[in-house]
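Hi support team,

I've been running sequence recovery on a batch of backbones for a student project. Most finish fine, but this one hangs at about 90% for roughly twenty minutes before it completes. I'm not sure whether the input is malformed or the queue is just slow. I've pasted the structure tokens below so you can try to reproduce it. Let me know if you need the job ID as well.

Thanks,
M.K.
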């Protein structure tokens, strides 16, 4: 009686192993694809963060440059390079400050 039970059990194990191998070939138990997708998502997340940082930094500098150009056109009688440098440095500082606040908020 126990021999019959053990032979049925071993046949069931063989069938389940064959089924597992077949499903693995079909891609159902393929962990590599899941790991690759996870790595791609992480890479995309960091790429988006880096792109956002570039836009943040460049945006503040360009905003200050635009403000200087408007002031040069309507307020100043001639070009003021010192004011331009001050505005660009202020824009860069503001951009870095915004980046620091964003990075400390990222989890």
């Amino acid at each position: 009686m126990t021999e019959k039970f053990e032979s049925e059990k071993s046949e069931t194990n063989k069938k389940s192993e064959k089924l597992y191998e077949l499903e693995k070939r079909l891609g159902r138990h393929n962990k590599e694809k899941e790991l690759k997708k996870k790595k791609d998502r992480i890479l995309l997340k960091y790429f988006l963060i880096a792109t956002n940082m570039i836009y943040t930094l460049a945006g503040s500098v360009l905003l200050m440059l635009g403000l200087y150009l408007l002031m040069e056109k309507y307020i100043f009688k001639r070009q003021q390079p010192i004011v331009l440098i001050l505005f660009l440095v202020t824009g860069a500082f503001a951009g870095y400050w915004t980046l620091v606040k964003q990075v400390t908020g990222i989890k």
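--
Follow-up from support: It reproduced on our side and the slowdown came from queue contention, not your input. The helical segments are 2-26, 31-74, 81-105. No action needed from you.
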